[in-house]
Protein: Class I SAM-dependent methyltransferase
Amino acid sequence: MSPAESRRASRGWWDADADAYQAEHGSFLGDVDFVWCPEGLREADAHLLGEVAGRRVLEIGCGAASCSRWLHKEGASVVAADLSAGMLRHARTGNTRSGVEVPLLQSDASALPFAEGVFDIVCTAFGAVPFVADSARVMREVHRVLRPGGRWAFSITHPMRWVFLDDPGEGGLVAVHSYFDRRAYVEEDERHVPTYVEQHRTLGDRIRELVGAGFVLTDLIEPEWPNGHEATWGQWSPLRGRIFPGTAIFIATKPA
Structure:
């Protein structure tokens, strides 16, 4: 799967799925809130980005930009970027509905249209990274636009989930795939044109991508399923979440 094919598929998928995605998950994500993952970990509680007031922040793969609006409310200067015009349409609607206006940019995460060293923080909650064929290039681009000492934080589906079916029930507790099979998950239309592409990397792969780009990994968070959280989000469920992790959050810094 080439980077161009993966990019086309992701743009087309999220443009077409934006309405359904927001209808299903919009209330969980909120209009002005920073939710890192289906486990419900919030930046307001976790403080993974550190002090954000007065910081220049770029959110890539922003979706409807609820995280960016929360950062703006906390005093950050934010740009919210996404590949999908469909998702940015919902971001614009969210700006209007909430009264919290953040700049919106349609941009490929592997070719960020910014000068070097202009941001203090770059972040994404399940955006961009899992859908880019050359994710090592995304790491290099983020490193480029961060100032020395800047922070890069991103959440993804935990790589070990690749071993299991996307089944929130008992069928999703049985290992069926090799953790080391790095072939992309691809859905195709009737003409065999890719319509959805998601990439798999191991934990070690992700760490090597970060280190190779020049980052120092400072933390790796695997959120536990909280008591009282009984909602199901796709493959995420209380049954699976209480047995093995569903999310990995990487925190890295660009050396000063």
